[in-house]
Amino acid sequence: MVIQPPSEVGRTRRSIGAVALVAALAVALPIVGLVGRLASESSSAPDVTPAAAGATGSASPARSAAPSAGGPRAIVGRTILPLAGGPMAVALGARHLWIVTAGDGSVRRFDRDGRLDGPPIPLVLHQGGDVVPGRAEPTIGIAAGRVWVGNVPVAGDLVAVDATTDAVTATLVLGSDPVGIAGGFGWAWVATADGAVVRVGADARARTGVAPGGGPAHIAIGRDAVWISHGHSVVAVRPTDLSARSRVDSGGGGEIAVRDGGVWVLGWSGPNRSLLEIDETGGRVVYGSDVGTSGYSGIAWSLPSIVATDYADANSLVAPRSTDSAIASDATWISRPLEGELWRIALER
Prior knowledge:
CATH topology: Lipocalin
Structural class: mainly beta
Helix content: 10-25%
Number of domains: 1
Order of helices and strands: HEEEEEEEEEEEEEEEEEEEEEHEEEE
CATH class: Mainly Beta
CATH architecture: Beta Barrel
Number of strands: 25
């Protein structure tokens, strides 16, 4: 599970490596431990009595802890929000936490305090489509004023939901399962299972795809380009005409994130896992290391978490991204597909 840090990450290698690693470990380890402990307690002492799918409620804190100097912020409570069981995906942005539940083919939005903000939004089945359960996991992202959902209710479909009105505005048949959705420059950028990246407008009409190499694609939105880590290369694509602005022909293929003018890529250099920093403006490699021996390997294992998410974000800047959990500055959200639950674990503000 990729854990997103709850705070800003600095620019320098020293600060990025230290903060990203400390944030990932300091926040992730207590939460992972907490999930294990609370899971054993939830059947006997739930904070919210389970109700019909889509219900929610408020809860008193399950436990409290005094903050410790220099350590992670205290966990001050949890809320269990009943949902439909089955595959799920969560995303932060457009002022809410959004969760898609494949079990009932719906999207729900929660405010930052864990309250269900409106009824479940049923996703529209495209004309002539058949539900294909279990073939592909749901994915979700924020872009162009829309919440974009992939593979629900039909594998290979992309559904656009207006983030303001909650209306389903369009359904697009991609032909290949979406695996990650990023937003930038007024478009949704969708990575698909066949290794392509498809640019989609707010009207959900697919534009020309980008396929710079073999294998899965990872996407990060930069200042003036879309960065794609694909095969063994990294390509900066101009968003207007999809032409390649710059290219690095080694070290790509893995997670990628853009932060303060640096493009960080976890990929491959020969047989070894590598970490690169590419200057966003010039497109040249300014740092590279074998992750196995690098003192900065903490940066690699925090990717793509190096770019934090927040409720106010207008776009999902990285894709694919872990969609079973999300960490904001005030809470950790965890989906539990088997139990049909969404957990909100509150952190001290």
